Amino acid sequence: TLLCSLSGCPRATFTGKKGKVSGDEVLNTKFKTSDVLENDEEIKQLNKEISELNESNSEMEAAMVKLQSQISSMEKNLKNIEEENKIIEEQNEALFLELSGLSQALIQSLANIRLPHMEPISEQNFDAYVNTLTDMYTNQECYQNPDNKDLLESIKQAVKGIQV
Fold first, then answer.
1. pLDDT digits (tens, 9 = 90+) for 33-48
2. Is the dihedral of CA 41, 45, 48, 54 positive or negative?
3. Average pLDDT, the chain
4. Residue 141 DSSP symbol
5. Host H or E run for residue 73
6. pLDDT tens for residues 48-76?
7. CA-atom Rg of the chain in angstroms
8. Can you give the pLDDT at residue 9?
9. E-assigned strand segments in the chain
10. Does the keyword DNA-binding belong to this entry (predicted)?
11. Residue 129 class from Cβ within 10 Å (0-12 exposed, 13-18 middle, 19+ buried)?
12. Given a cut of 60, is residue 140 above it in pLDDT?
């Protein structure tokens, strides 16, 4: 059998080289006590910063949840307002059609009745005619002479059949 010499054996070479490491090299490869303490303080500082960031994130998340809730509430209110506005618009449209029908009926009923100092009622002078009629009925004491009494009675008879 062949015997390995100490210098020719790979294990012996490794072991021999391992034994040749100096004390300075050992100190350089291991942490010094001051380095460990500095690293420990850095780790504590990092942990503190992580804690603060987590707390800040939690606060921000809570604020976001609150903000999202407010936005949802506002969107819901806006949707309700839009629906209410749509209903009001439909009601206004119906009222406008009804008013249009009433004004046409009034124009037809009063077409042959002339108010003093006015042309016969038409769409063009409708507002002025209605204002004059309103004034006549609210201030009837000013229209007490027989001609005006007859005119007021004629107007009453003319509009009597209009359904409001």
1. 556 667 888 888 999 9
2. negative
3. 80
4. G
5. helix 33-109
6. 999 999 999 999 999 999 999 999 999 99
7. 51
8. 54
9. none
10. no
11. buried
12. yes
Smallest CA-to-CA distance from 107 within 164, 158, 163 is with 158
**pTM listed for this prediction:** 0.50
- CB 158, CB 110: distance < 8 Å: yes
Residue 90 is inside which H or E element, if any?
A: helix 33-109
Cβ count within 10 A of residue 110: 21
Helix, strand, coil percentages, rounded to 5, for the chain? 75, 0, 25
Question: How many Å apart are CA 71 and CA 75, to the nearest integer?
Answer: 6
Token readout for 21 is 């490491």
CA 47/CA 28 separation, integer angstroms: 28
Residue with tokens 């209605």: 130
Contact 106, 164 (CB under 8 A): no
- Lookup: tokens for 52: 């603060």
